[in-house]
Fold this sequence. Notes:
By secondary structure, this protein is mainly alpha-helical. Helix content is 55%, strand content 0%.
Amino acid sequence: MEELLELLKDVRDDVDFENCTDLIDGKILSSFDIIQIISVIDEEYDVAVPATEIIPANFNSAQAIYDMIQRLK
C-alpha cells in the first residue's frame, strides 16, 4: 500500500490519497488523472485494468485502487 501511495503522489502531489475517499465523487481526479493511474498500475504492478473495472467505486480512494489491483493480480 505504501508503494501505491508513493506512485499516486507522483501522479498528483496535491491530493491526500491516504485519507481521501471521494476522489471521483468529489471531482478531485480528472479523467486524465485516471488514465495516468491506470498506466502506473500497468507499469508498476504488471496488471492490465479492463474497461469494466474503470468505475468510480474502484478509484474513489487509494484503498479501493489497491483492492482492485489485488483482485486483478
